[in-house]
Amino acid sequence: MKLTDSVLRSFRVAKVFRENSDKINCFDFSPNGETVISSSDDDSIVLYDCQEGKPKRTLYSKKYGVDLIRYTHAANTVVYSSNKIDDTIRYLSLHDNKYIRYFPGHSKRVVALSMSPVDDTFISGSLDKTIRLWDLRSPNCQGLMHLQGKPVCSFDPEGLIFAAGVNSEMVKLYDLRSFDKGPFATFKMQYDRTCEWTGLKFSNDGKLILISTNGSFIRLIDAFKGVVMHTFGGYANSKAVTLEASFTPDSQFIMIGSEDGKIHVWNGESGIKVAVLDGKHTGPITCLQFNPKFMTFASACSNMLRKERACLRSPGGLAVRLGYADPHLPDSIPFLPYHWTTVVEGLLVAHH
């Protein structure tokens, strides 16, 4: 089914999981869209089956804590940052719950982690004002960049370049093969002293870059020219919470949560807000991602949900994600056998 304004407006909450005792700080869909994995401030890692619509396994990282969890290219391995003892990045096998490798080097908390979409390379950004380049096969840092401020960073969808947002005022583009020569392009943005940049993402078509902030607006820029195409606002974030913004897989829509539990959706081309969805969260929606393969998205709030939630199903098992699907529309995005939407103590996963 093709994503349209009306399809996006039809999403409704359908199911809730209560697997955590503290907030979910991050989650990530597997590249094939079949599972989603979450990390929490309660030191747990929870793996969910998107086809069955239920949790599969819970692991713990009690000693080091867990944040910024990311799938590698193998469905049973992840990397994540620590939020307790040190600032080492860890490479974990989900199969036997054993560490494969450690990646030491950062001297302050890691605030950005991005896996290459094509190989075993990943990058990390830290409050120590550096970005480090890594290879899963080696514990040694493959490259180091010193910056002038807190970084946010991400690979482009082809894995050839990566972008670094620095000091909440400029975006620098680096060629992975020659990053030591410096950025090949730098886009200076108008500095806004009222907020900080908290995230940076490329659209799947590689044409757009989305900049998240801890204010009440996000920016969409042209990835080639650095021109600000749209500034999206009109959502609540009075407490300067870090809210994750995301593209839909077709690169056409932009989504972000808000402190009042609502999810706002804009058309990336027109800049028009096309939907405001009631995520039924009791706190700010800090994590939000669309499934890369299926008509599903997930959201998580910073305050854990303490009450039970109803599991809603459409007649005949049809499309329930964060909403209902029209079964008469032509399919271009596959459905899952079980259509569900989840808020895991703040994690909401939506299906169509």
From TrEMBL:
It comes from the Eukaryota. InterPro entries: Swd2/WDR82, WD40/YVTN_repeat-like_dom_sf, WD40_PAC1, WD40_repeat_dom_sf, WD40_rpt. Keywords: Nucleus, Repeat, Transcription, Transcription regulation, Transcription termination, WD repeat. GO terms for molecular function: chromatin binding; lncRNA binding. WD repeats lie at residues 17-58, 103-138, 235-276. GO terms for biological process: DNA-templated transcription termination; lncRNA catabolic process; negative regulation of DNA-templated transcription, elongation; negative regulation of lncRNA transcription; nuclear RNA surveillance; positive regulation of transcription elongation by RNA polymerase II; RNA polymerase II promoter clearance. One of its GO terms (cellular component) is chromatin. Signal peptide: none annotated. Pfam families: WD40. It is found in: Nucleus. The keyword Transcription applies. Belongs to the WD repeat SWD2 family. This is WD repeat-containing protein 82. It comes from Equus asinus (Donkey).
